[in-house]
Amino acid sequence: xxxxxxxxxxxxxxxxxxxxxxxxxxxxxxxxxxxxxxxxxxxxxxxxxxxxxxxxxxxxxxxxxxxxxxxxxxxxxxxxxxxxxxxxxxxxxxxxxxxx
Length: 100
Prior knowledge:
Blueprint: H1 4-8, H2 10-21, E1 34-35, E2 40-41, H3 43-49, H4 55-69, H5 84-98
Antiparallel strand pairs: 1-2
Helix pairs in contact: 2-4, 2-5, 4-5
């Protein structure tokens, strides 16, 4: 169960939207990667886990991490690799984080 305050927080909502709706990232919405009780995202563990993923899956992870704190850079060129469903997930996450 995701705390309502995190779903309303501008830094968490984009990341959570991606993790809750992306088929691969949904599997990593657990405390060893995203600890909702401690309000911690284990970036290094997620990046290590993503070795071998497809370019679009890695893009979605990097976008989620960027939306969370901005320290994790994302190359928007990677969005060209997204299918329609993942494009919609990414766009909604951007709207949740930045408004609009």
